[in-house]
Amino acid sequence: MEQKVALHFLQASTVRCLLEPWCRELGFIICYGAIVLKLYRHLVEFRTRKAHRWVVRDLDLLRYLCAMIVAVLCYLAAFTATSLDFLQYSELVWQMDQPQSMDAEQVASNMCRPLRWDYVTEAGELLILGFGLQLAIASRNANTQFRERQFLVASILIEFLVSSTFYILRFWYLEEFNPSTLFLALFVRSQLTNTVTLGLIFLPKLWYQHKQLLSRGFSLQL
Q1: How many domains does the chain have?
Q2: Burial classification of residue 145, based on how many CB atoms lie within 10 Å of its CB (0-12 exposed, 13-18 middle, 19 or more buried)
Q3: Domain of 153?
Q4: Which is more confident, 128 or 103?
């Protein structure tokens, strides 16, 4: 997902505007889709109402994730096709009015033009995150190794709060934001969500393995 922010260092063009949704949504579904599926496995494995315990295999999770990726690919293909049709009437690059110009000249903003389709995409992201939070609530009594469930829930909750706040502010104050402000907001959002999520997922595991190595070394000394 950070690739979308990295693309903003390139000059705005039709190709870049077509690539941005692919980078964002594929990264989103791979990252948070995997987290949602992990929470689903915690819920299934620690369910106590059924007499027989159902174990969700890693292969099953991979199949579910692949199905989610295929669905997103179909959605992005439809998005790209619609955007190509939009090119017949206007450009994808966001043209901003230059107030100092007497002729109301427009300049490229190095940002892509906001589209109504973006609202559908953003609503879909929040629905997936909301479903993950629902699974988190349902599996709140599950005990996992090195408190994995708590860190997964924290990553989804942070993404949900930060992204929803960003979408609301952009919806209401889009006309007042200049391209530099939007780029800064995208960068801050990326650090608060993607970077924090990676830390929450991998750092506890590395710390747990580090403690295991220390315990084994202490046991050997004894």
Answers
A1: 1
A2: exposed
A3: 13-95+111-219
A4: 128
